[in-house]
DNA sequence: TATTGAGTCTGGAGTTCCTACAGGGTGTAC
DNA sequence: GTACACCCTGTAGGAACTCCAGACTCAATA
């Protein structure tokens, strides 16, 4: 664990913002490859693991399930031989991502209006529910 | 259950896109008020419940926890007397919403590029991980 | 109006995605 | 060589659902 680009699970946790226990869980769940081990049995990681783990964390924050993230990781890993398959999976997620952006934009608009009104000392009414409720 | 604006949990489920079991779970968790009951004990809902439930579903899809959603519902319900409190809670969520939008737009860009390249028959390399991994 | 079949009820167990110990081993710094 | 922080496995817990059994309700139809 002395080489600068090889580090322990604690360091990985710190650099990726993912809990140590969660990292081990992702390994069990197959989202991370089983890492190399030190002679004493410690897991050994590299920079590429930080990247992968940070991605998983962000994607989770954005409401993607582990299964969806598995798909996205497969895309990134170039696991699909067929261009058609990359296209289809990419398009599915693109549609989902765009829908999420649209919803978040709506929420942003409402929240910004409320915060602004409050800053002026005016107690605002809140159309938050209605704006997301409509199809 | 004959009046047009009063309906059963099954109809509510259909109109809101939320599982029947999940609706009952939200009731137990205090996100939905306890509904009126028919003489035989069936839950009775109204249009306002569809709105509220649809909002919860959307917010869950966007990665908000039930606790965060409780806060947002409180905002919408005008539960806070103080403008300061509305301002603070609104601002907290606004910051979170904007961060999510930023991440999703990055994903959107990558996915769109990949889908486009694939449509041209070119197998693209995928910088998906890198784009979200960076702080 | 009696029946039938879809819908609903409660309570409890199972699933996913973590998170928190307990009890023990590892690594390194003095 | 012994502290002390770190890591190991395994198991148990929590959040947010999801499913099921066995019993009851309701509306439609014969």
From TrEMBL, chains A, B:
CDD domains: HTH_CadR-PbrR-like (cd04785)
Keywords: DNA-binding, Repressor, Transcription, Transcription regulation
HTH merR-type domain location: 6-75
Superkingdom, natural source: Bacteria
Protein name: Helix-turn-helix domain-containing protein
A Pfam cross-reference name: MerR_1
SMART domains associated with the record: HTH_MERR
KW Transcription regulation (keyword) present: yes
Listed Gene3D superfamilies: 1.10.1660.10
Organism: Reyranella aquatilis
